[in-house]
Amino acid sequence: MNTKRLARALVPLALLLPLATACGGPAGADDASDGTVTVTVGYQSKTINTVTAGTLLRSLGYFEEELAERGRKDGVRYRVQWQDYATGAPITAQMTAGKIDIGSMGDFPLLLNAARGRQLGEPTRLVSVTGYNLRGGLNTVVTAPGSGLRTLADLKGKRVSTSVGSAADGTLVRALRRAGLDPAKDVSKLNQQPSVGASALAGGSVDALSQFVAWPGLLAFQGKAEALYDGAELDLPTFHGVTVREEFARERADVLDAFLRAQRRATDRLRSAPVESAESVAKETGLPAEVVYLYNGAQGIATFDPALRPELLAALKEDVPVLREAGLVKDVDVDAFVDPAPLRRAVTAAGYPRAGAAKAELWLRGRSATRSFGTAGELLAAVAAARPGTVRAAYVPDAVTGTLWFADRAVWVADGGSWRAFVTRAAADRWLAGHPGARVVAYADAVRAAGS
């Protein structure tokens, strides 16, 4: 994998927020030479929970198709200019400069987008969602393998790397408080790019790393980190969404409608062909397909649905105080920022069902589809029965939070005749405390036992 390429894609929000360098001409503008209307879309290729409004959507060409159909009706020629950025911050900078029409980013950056837009007189509106997790499982705190750290309480007096202004930082702050620690006094928090934090963790200059998708899964997949805290333990939704310049939405409502229809089509595609979609995103981003699938797969940590669900908007309001306390915003009027009208107007199809409980999955080499299982034990038995070298990836949901994780990186517990898996050792220990006789078993031993 191209680590430098991934590193450039995940620069922290707080460092990039001041940027306002112009890229290209005015967004949503007519080209005087031939009357072509250029629509500029800002996206984050490696923030893989935005792919239905970015990487995957671009590769499928659905937005261009929708605009071509629009052009046949109104006689206008449209051109889409895609601009790839590392995080949501530079997209916000370009939107407030009138250089980007439509952008996608995570929930905390969306709030900064709203605040910055109002402050600079270029207001924006949240019009749809890309990927979400109702419990917050998209953010994770990890430590180096063999660190000896077992719980968040063990971080007292330790150094933790995160990206200030990101949802991962919000998870860290909230989780530390629940653990009885003061985030400002009991830990030394370093504001670092994810790649810098990953290197610091590997080099021992920090004790833990709190980051957003796809870093925790990537580092776990590579054997460079172990999960210390599953963000789903907060039970607070986290999501990514699509924001648009208010002026553009008013003057080019038909183009916005075309984008939202295209996003819905890309969402349909991802949900109907998750393996193929993961492979496509992996090819475009340099991320391992196994990591992409962990988050974006059929049972993945993220659920894709454009709907502006009430529980997501309620969570967005709860994020405002975190950013205010960090000095990044004074206040954000979430109700004024959210505009459900364009999605209702553009997409008449019924919404997707609420995400259900995740199932274990097995991905064999050479297969274009995965197999799902009702229990963790069934997954272990299937892994044991597979021919050597044919298992590409095995995924299992946490027995309590439901967060999907790599089976060979999970903590396995034998409890009577049942098998249970956990993202973190702390979660497994809590289960052991309430279930006398249960015991932790190494993954390889669990596979052998299930196959005997």
From TrEMBL:
<keyword id="KW-0732">Signal</keyword>
<protein>
    <submittedName>
        <fullName>Nitrate ABC transporter, periplasmic protein</fullName>
    </submittedName>
</protein>
<feature type="signal peptide">
    <location>
        <begin position="1"/>
        <end position="29"/>
    </location>
</feature>
<feature type="domain" description="SsuA/THI5-like">
    <location>
        <begin position="93"/>
        <end position="276"/>
    </location>
</feature>
<dbReference type="Pfam" id="PF09084">
    <property type="entry name" value="NMT1"/>
</dbReference>
<dbReference type="InterPro" id="IPR015168">
    <property type="entry name" value="SsuA/THI5"/>
</dbReference>
